[in-house]
Design goal:
By secondary structure, this protein is mainly alpha-helical. The chain has helices at about 1-15, 25-50, 55-65, 70-95. The longest helix has 25 residues, at about 25-50. The protein starts with a helix and ends in a 12-residue tail after the last helix.
Length: about 100
Amino acid sequence: MLGMTLFIFLSIAAAVGNVNNQNPDQEVKVALAFGLSIATLAQSLGHISGAHLNPAVTVGLLVSCQISAIRAVFYILAQMFGSVLASSMVMMVRPQNITSLGVNK
């Protein structure tokens, strides 16, 4: 849950931006935030949960019979809760003049 919370918070917080900024730096910033945060979290938290930072990883390990179905369900529930928690945190710390998350129109 901690890993997914940090990943979503860092990634979405980087995506919050000015919709009037049409420069390519926005895309580079978001891409680097996603890539560096997932790499850093996988390295730092991988020994705790096996780097289950995404439900797709958990489902992949479930399909390959490397974790039990019960453990997979609990991991996925924790990841979903962490995502909701991180999204709520971003909504609380975002600038008040920004009404949406992300730069998409």
